[in-house]
Amino acid sequence: MNEAPVRVSAVLFDMDGVLVDSRAVIERAWREAAQLYERKITEDDIHHHIHGQPGPHTIRTLFHDLPRSDQEKVQAHVIHVENTADYAPIPGVEQTIARLHAAGVTIGLVTSGWQYKIDRVLDLLDAQSFFSVIVHRDDFVRGKPYPDPYLLAAERLGISASRTVVFEDAISGVTSAVAAGAYCVGIGGEELLHAGAKIIIPDFEGVKVQKTDESGTSIIACKPGHQLFIDHSSARI
User: CA 216 to CA 233: how far, in whole Å?
Assistant: First the structure.
């Protein structure tokens, strides 16, 4: 059975695991940092305290008993690894972003990453000028899973967060988007449905973007029987 059409005004993307395949790099960086202090990172740590979380949260949670100087070394190691790693785009994401931009859809980026890494990723995707709003780790105090990052992005666009569709790959990110009132599409497995994602897809290969004949409207279809109507006129660019 097909879903009832959903109408939104903007599309917001997470970065790690959504724009680029960086999960393995991030996990390696934190595991290496933990090994420096003879610690181990568990799968629970990865899902709840690393992916989708800003570094300061991870350090406060997993390295809280270390002296400040050692915490800074942990953070420096992680940043170095992530800043120097090679990343591959998530399949289909370059084409999806380019088609959304060509159709006049308002696009935003909401990430726990930092500016240097954001610049590298957008350069890789050749999408530096496509995003109308970018919210990163320095823009908020409470990161994902709190709704603050997505609420801030919507505020900067001059729309309600309930008028956005969000692409997320981490449980904390899905929780953040849903708490903000967004329509969330999960990139990954069924655990994202349990976190509140409306649908899940493996990547962007099957995502279709179509500009309709009606003025100021586009359609995104993430999979057969699914449609999101994007009303350009109600989003401020």
Answer: 6
Measure the CA–CA gap between 61 and 30, rounded to whole angstroms: 13
The strand pair at 217-221 and 228-231 is best described as antiparallel
**Domain boundary residue, one of 67, 84, 101:** 84
pLDDT at residue number 214: 61
Q: Are residues 214 and 105 in the same domain?
A: yes
The answer to whether 127 and 105 have CB atoms below 8 angstroms apart is no
Compute how many other C-beta atoms are within 10 angstroms of the C-beta atom of residue 91.
14
pLDDT at 3: 60
Enclosing domain of residue 217: 6-21+89-234
Does residue 209 share a domain with residue 114? yes
Record the pTM: 0.89
Residue, of 152 and 228, whose pLDDT is higher:
152
CA-nearest of 25, 1, 148 to 85 is: 25
Query: For residue 114, what are the CA distances in angstroms to 9, 118, 137, 138, 203?
Result: 26, 6, 6, 7, 24
What DSSP state is assigned to residue 14? Answer: -
| Alpha carbons 230 and 237: distance in angstroms, whole number | 14
pLDDT value of position 217: 84
Same domain? 215 vs 155: yes
Task: Tell me the pLDDT tens digit for each residue of 63-121.
Answer: 999 999 999 999 999 999 999 999 999 999 999 999 999 999 999 999 999 999 999 99
